[in-house]
Amino acid sequence: MRDKVLVILSTSEKEKLLTGLLYATNCLRHEWMREVRVVVFGPSQRVAVEDEEVQSYLRLLVDSRSVPLACKYLADQMGLTTSLDEMGMDVVYVGSVVSRLIQEGFVPLVF
Question: Looking at the domain that runs over 4-110, which CATH code has it been given?
């Protein structure tokens, strides 16, 4: 049974980003999936830093102990590393992490 989901947020479109965040938070709240991991990647990192509504959803994830990951390489390139870290995200090189999670049976959903 597939009961692990990897939500990858890579869009700069706030509406799409919120859709992915809503799904991830509801998965945790209603226990739709056994494990939920979230990766904030690329353009979505900038939206996360700039938008308070997006930040509120990310705080819900942090509070539920599903700490979102942010891509360190891209965060460094965009000058966002400190801000993402201060928001409670784990800022790491995500390429190998995403690959490992998929190998472990996480189903990727990309928003």
Answer: 3.40.1260.10
